[in-house]
Amino acid sequence: MGLGGPRAEQTEEHLKREHSLSKPYQGVGSASSGLWDLQGNAMVMTQYIRLTPDLQSKQGAVWNRVPCYLRDWEMQVHFKIHGQGKKNLNGDGFAIWYTKDRMQPGPVFGSKDNFLGLGVFVDTYPNEEKQQERVFPYISAMVNNGSLTYDHDRDGRPTELGGCTAMVRNLNHDTFLVIRYVKRRLTVLIDIDGKHEWRDCIDVPGVRLPRGYYFGTSSVTGDLSDNHDIISLKLYQLTVERTPEEEKRDREVYLPVVDNLKLPGMEAPLEPMSGLALFLIVFFSLVAIVFAIVIGVIIYNKWQEQSRKHFY
Asked: Which segments show compositional bias classed as Basic and acidic residues (predicted)?
């Protein structure tokens, strides 16, 4: 099920099994042979992996053991969220991760805060009281260089890159989400209406993600709950043609960052200063200091001379 549409690049897709998860989930959670680790209350069932059951205070995750070194990729997520709770009496949702650290539980949909990398959140419960312009469930994305905290009380609004409403609970048809990362552009699309059509959700240019991070998905329930089920995660390597300028622009980075994003701590790193520029700055600074000292000595001597004249 590849992506098309007017904005799609001319790409070739290749399924990467070492980063994919599908039935019959062979070896998942196995100490030796598996490619995926289970955490917390996550359980392997015949038709899905249940991150959390429809019970209070549960946390579960599944993480890929193999770091991903692909430059351009697409993650297709087949999921199901369902439970006994009525609207806004269910929670809390789940996250899909591409991060430096793995298997670290925490407060952000069951995983650690201040993470390094990308998080895409399917948030099913509004924590902020004033929700006039936003309807839940809501999908959002966040890129973190380790300095940002996810604001749970405000549903992550201060740090989100974009988002959309997605009515994904208690549906009788399949629900899909796609995260696509091509040429530093992050897009999220959803297929949740049973029509087998992709709908735009998030589109952010200038996203720079390091290679060698891990894919995972996690979920948490609190006072409210839901079944959060992952049916499959399929990662595709995308082969995209680049111009020489794009090759230079898309060189490898070592910290996650979003260009031109005005969030605290998320500015793009400054280019390192050249040796000549540094030398000139130091040289002219020293000249200015020496000049200031000479002027100071001249003024002081004149003041001393004037003082002596007052005494005679």
From this structure: 9-21
